[in-house]
Predict the structure.
Amino acid sequence: MSKNTLFENKEEALKLLEDSRKQIDKIDNDLVDLIYRRTSLAKDIVFAKQYLDMDIYDKEREKSLHDKVNKLAIDKNIDEEILSEIMNMLTILSKNEQEEILRRNENG
């Protein structure tokens, strides 16, 4: 592996590595917090869907979400397939939470 000319010495490279990892750790914490906040909205959503006599799975909403995410992936130069898989996992998490809320509500 060839040495990069970004650094004048090993200490600079190590410092950048450490700082970047600290930033990634903070972003990871923020992502988990955002996922928690997103998932916590499932209660509001499922009760509204129940009142409106809607299914948990909303094909149009999911298509719209994926279209938006694909556009964002292109705009941000992020792998579309991987970002789509992440959004699939988030929608599954939300649907599972909605189903669990319904189960708990029905069982008292």
In short: The radius of gyration is 20 Å. The chain has a mean pLDDT of 92. Helices lie at 10-40, 42-51, 59-76, 80-106.
